Amino acid sequence: MISEMLGALGASTRQMLADWGFAARLFFKLMGMSGATLKRLGLVRDQVHFLGNYSLAIITVSGLFVGFVLGLQGYYTLQRYGSAEALGLLVALSLVRELGPVVAALLFAGRAGASLTAEIGLMRAGEQLTALEMMAVDPVQRILAPRFWGGIIALPLLAAVFSAVGIMGGYVVGVLLIGVDSGAFWSQMQGGVDVFKDVGNGIIKSVVFGVAVTFIALLQGYVAKPTPEGVASATTRSVVVSSLSVLGLDFILTAMMFSI
Length: 260
What we know:
Layout: H1 2-32, H2 34-39, H3 41-52, H4 56-79, H5 87-125, H6 128-134, H7 139-178, H8 182-192, H9 195-222, H10 228-259
C-alpha cells in the first residue's frame, strides 16, 4: 500500500516537473524568436487587432462602471475626513496602480485568453499543427509567436484605456452628479500622480500580466488533448490559471515596487 502511494506520488511529481520543463523550454523558444517575429509585423498587427480590438468593448464598459463605483465609494469615504476634493487623486491612483492593470488582465484572460486556447486547441485537434510540421513549418514560430507578442502589446493598451475610461467615470459621478469642484478634482490628480512611479509601475504590471496571460493561454492550447473534451478542459484551465497568476504576480510586483 505504501509502496503504491510512493509510486503514485513519484509519478505525479515526475510528470509535474516534465510539464514545467516543457513550459520553460516553450517560453524561452518564444522569447528567442522575438526578433524574427517582430520583423513580420503584419502577423503581429493582425493578432493585436484580434486580441485587443475585440476586447475593447468589455474593457471600456467595465472601466466606466469601475470608475462610477470608485467615484461613489471614494466620495463617501473622503467626505468623513473633509477631503472630498481629493477624489480625483483617489480614483486615479486606484486605477493606474492596481485596478487598471489587474482588472484589464482578468478580463483579457476571460475573453482573449480563452479564445487563444480554444483556437490553438482546435488546431491541435484538427491536426493543423501536425500538418505544418510535416511541411517543415515550425508551428511555434508561425502560429504561437505572433499571438504571444500580440497579447503582450495589446494588454498594456487595454489597461491604459481601462484606466482612462475609469477616471472619466469617476469624474462623471464625483463632479457632474455629486458636485465636487472640477478644478480640485483635476488639480489634486495632477499634483499627486507621479508619471514614473505610479503610471510607470502600472505599465510594468500590465506588460508582465500580458506575458503571463498570453503564454498560459497558448501553452494550454498547445498541449490540449485533441478531443472536444480536451479543448474544453484546456480553455477552462487557461482562464483559471491565468486569473490566479495575475493575482499572485500583482502581490509580488506591488511588494517589490513599494519596497524600492
